[in-house]
Amino acid sequence: MNYIGTSERLVIRHLGLDDAAFIFQLLNQESWRKFIGDKQIRSLEDAQHYLIDGPLKMYQEYGFGLFAVQRQIDGALIGICGLIKRDNLPDVDIGFALLEEYANCGYAYEAALIIKDYALKQLNLKRLIAIVNPDNQRSIKLLEKIGLRFEKQISLSIDKPQLNLMALNA
Predict the structure, then answer these.
(1) Which of 52, 85, 131, 159 fits as disulfide partner to 163, beta carbons 3.0 to 4.6 Å?
(2) At 169, is the secondary structure helix, strand, or coil?
(3) pTM for this structure?
């Protein structure tokens, strides 16, 4: 297993096809659908395709992607956090999502710090961005806490709603 980083409480590692059941659960949460969008993951097979076409493909193309977030104490898979290179954005985007039962425990902040450090120190990125639903105050506060600042509102396509673009220049 490829490990990206650790903290006292967390391990960040590459996702694999054996994580499909977890991805199915995470992407079908109410909070994911509300703030990120419905990815039409309706089966374990859909979750495997999401992994193949998303994180696993990005690992091959860029050497990074969304990663699994696990607790050190029990190995529980609690969320994802990582870096996304989108065709319609010039910079690498940091993203994160946790299972709702692990929210408000500081895990997302801890994982985001590991990924920020990885992006700036390991990958030597000069700029890190995030796109976030303007109604998602919890994520906005976390992004501000790790140093990103609001720049402008953007839309990823004509039929998509406006999102806040936040950035950190190294």
Answers:
(1) 131
(2) strand
(3) 0.94
Tokens of 150: 């609001």
Please name the helix (run of DSSP H) or strand (run of DSSP E) that holds residue 115, with its range, or none: helix 107-117
| Residue in the block written with tokens 């710090």 | 113
Q: How far apart (Å, rounded) are the C-alpha atoms in residues 36 and 64? A: 20
Question: DSSP 3-state assignment of 66?
Answer: strand
Class of residue 110 by CB neighbours under 10 A (exposed 0-12, middle 13-18, buried 19+)? middle
Model pLDDT for residues 32-83, shown as the tens digit of each residue: 888 888 899 999 999 999 999 999 999 999 999 999 999 999 999 999 999 9
Distance CA 120, CA 11 (A): 18
Q: Tokens 């860029």 map to which residue?
A: 62
Q: What is the DSSP letter of 124?
A: -
CA distances from 76 to 48, 98, 99 (A): 19, 12, 11
Distance CA 114, CA 80 (A): 12
Summarised one tens digit per residue, pLDDT across range 72-111 is 999 999 999 999 999 989 999 999 999 999 999 999 999 9
